[in-house]
Each structure stands twice: as structure tokens, then as C-alpha cells.
Amino acid sequence: MRLRFALACGAVFVLGGAVLLVAVSFVVRQSLEPRDGLRQPEYIVVASTRFYATGDTVANDPYYVAQQRVAQVRRIYQRDTIKNVLTVGGIGLLAAGGLVTAVGWRAAGWVIRPVRSVTERARSIAHSHDLAERIAHNGPQDEIKELADIVDGILGRLARSYDGQRRFVANASHELRTPLTINRTLVDVAVRRPDATEDVKRLGESLLVVNTRHERLIDALLALSEGQRTVLDRRPFDLSDVVEHVLDLAAKEAADREVTIHRLLDPAPTAGEAVLVERLAQNLVENAIRHNHPGGEMWVSTRQRADRVELVVANTGLPVPPYEIETIFEPFRRLHGDRLRSDRGSGLGLSIVRVVTEAHDGTVTASPREEGGLTIAVELPREQT
Questions:
Q1: Is residue 135 within 8 Å of 151, Cβ to Cβ?
Q2: Are residues 91 and 163 in the same domain?
Q3: Do 260 and 362 belong together in one domain?
Q4: N or C: which end of the chain has fewer CB within 10 A?
Q5: 271 and 174 in one domain?
Q6: Based on the number of CB atoms within 10 Å of its own CB, is 139 exposed (0-12), middle (13-18) or buried (19 or more)?
Q7: Which residues span the domain enclosing 344?
Q8: Dihedral angle at the C-alpha atoms of 219, 223, 226, 229, nearest 10 degrees?
Q9: Does the reported pTM lie above 0.90?
Q10: Tens of pLDDT along 264-286?
């Protein structure tokens, strides 16, 4: 903006000066034209009778020759004068245009100083992720003050909306989990009764599976809602420690499904909310185990490079078409149309992975393996130690 303002000042000055210079050259040209009172009389009126008596021509009259010479000198003088006016004026105009551009640069810096103040304050709020902060611009009632007040109003509405959403999530968590917990307890008691028939036991086991699926679905929805907000509390931690903890918890399930885990966990310092990142890693590991085949394998690695840290989870399994790669990150999307098997989750696992990754300013990508299965890589900002 500052550069455009300075160039606009210089351009307007040069254009205006060019028009003025053309007008001055026209006035100078008119001023150098001979006036009627100063014109010499025509030769025919003042011609000497001596030339007519001797039979000489008008062209040989010295008065006529002198008159033509004066006219020629006047034209040369007029041309040179106008040329000098245009040349010197043009050079001076360009020099003055550069000076005006420099002055415009300085003036623009003074004019947009309040804009820079508002921008720096807005950037500080964006980096702090604290919706309670405000720009609170102090200045005259101009366009900049109006813009700052509008942004403050938007921040206020966002803060109220976020607080309402957080209260809703907390209330929904309690209201949804409580009846499911009660249902699970009642069904478990009914199944364990001594007089319970085999039909009742089978029905109870089916209800417990359904109840467990609903509990996982609610947990996933709450995690998705929690991950969709920007991370407010950024604390340093090592991604490899989080992944190692997740792998230890998933070891029994992997053993039950006969899936071999290969781990290569190098230090990977990052920052954020470790609980959310743990859920991210847990979803990736559980997907790699559950969407595998008996006797399959999975590879988990962490490493750091440049300004990023990386978590890579790969597994064997059914071939994945390349056109389905992007859709697997959408909520409730499952590969191979598997919507009935509750042991494979609710279809929100990779959606939570993407949301948590983006909340930590990271990226997640997936690619199919030629032998079957997927390779999913998550990159997060590296914490400088």
C-alpha cells in the first residue's frame, strides 16, 4: 500500500507537470511569433525604383535578402528555445517526480502507521489464539477506527460462540454418556443373573456390542468437536514418546489379530496438546490394525527433518484405489463399503486425524501401497530446542 501510494503521487505529479510543460511550450512559441506592429512592410511597397530601372529582380534586393535572413534566424531561435524548454523542463519534471515519490513514501508511512498498529495487534491475537483479547485501537473516528471496532465485534461474537460450543460439548458429553453407562450396567447385570437363559445372554451380548459401538461413536464425535478448535495450549513434547505409549496400549489388540508391529521411533520434538496428538496416533494405529488381515504387518516410525517432525504409519491389507484416498478423511466414510462391522470403528478415525493435524498447523497425506494397505504420513511443526 505504501509503495502504491508513493508511485501514485509521483505519477500524478509527472502527468500534471507534463501537461503544464506542453502548455508553457505553446505559450513560448506564441510569444516568439512576430507581432503585427513589428512586421516589416512587404517588399513590393518599399521596393527601390533603382531595381526596376535597371531591370534587376526582387531576389537581388539586399533589403529582401536581409528580411529572409531575419526570418530564418527567428525560426531557428524559436525552435531551439522550445527545444530547451521541453528538455530542461522534462529533466526537471522527472527529478521533481522522483522527489515527490520519495516524499509520498514518507507521507504514506505516516498515513498507514495506524493500519500497521492494527495489523500487528491482530497478528498477535491470531498467534495467541486468545479470543478474549481485543485490538482496542485508540484514534480518531476514521475508517481505521471503524475497521478495528468491527474486528473487535467479530472477536466478541466468536468468543461467545466458542464458549457456547464448549458448554454444549460438555453437557452433551454428560447427557449422552450417562444413559449409555446405565444401559451397559443394566444389560451386564441381566446377563450375569443365574436364571438368565441362553437367549437372554446372547441378546445381552449383542446389546453390549451395540452399546460399546455407540460409546465409541460419541467419544469420536466429541474428539472431532474438540479437535476442530484451534489448539490454545501449546506445550512442548516428544512425538515419539506419545507414539510409543499408543503402541504399547495397542499391543494386545495387534497380538489378538496376529498383526506384527515394526517400530522405528526417533526423537521428534513438537508442541501442542499431547492428549489430542495421542488420539491422532491412536486412531492411525487402530486403523492400521483393524483394516489389516490376519498375519499382516504394520510399520510405525517417527523422525525429524528441517523444521518439521513426521509420523508415518503403514500397514498391509486390501488394495486401496487411488481415487478413494481423499474420501477416507471425510466423516463416516469407510473403505470397501464396510458399514456393518462395529469392530472397525465409526468412520471418524481419519477425520479426527485430519482435524487434529490442522489444529496443530500440520499436514496429513495418504497413499496406497502396491502390496495392499495404506501409508499415512502426518507432519507437524518442529519445536526448536
A1: yes
A2: no
A3: yes
A4: C
A5: no
A6: exposed
A7: 233-381
A8: -150
A9: no
A10: 999 999 998 887 888 899 989 99
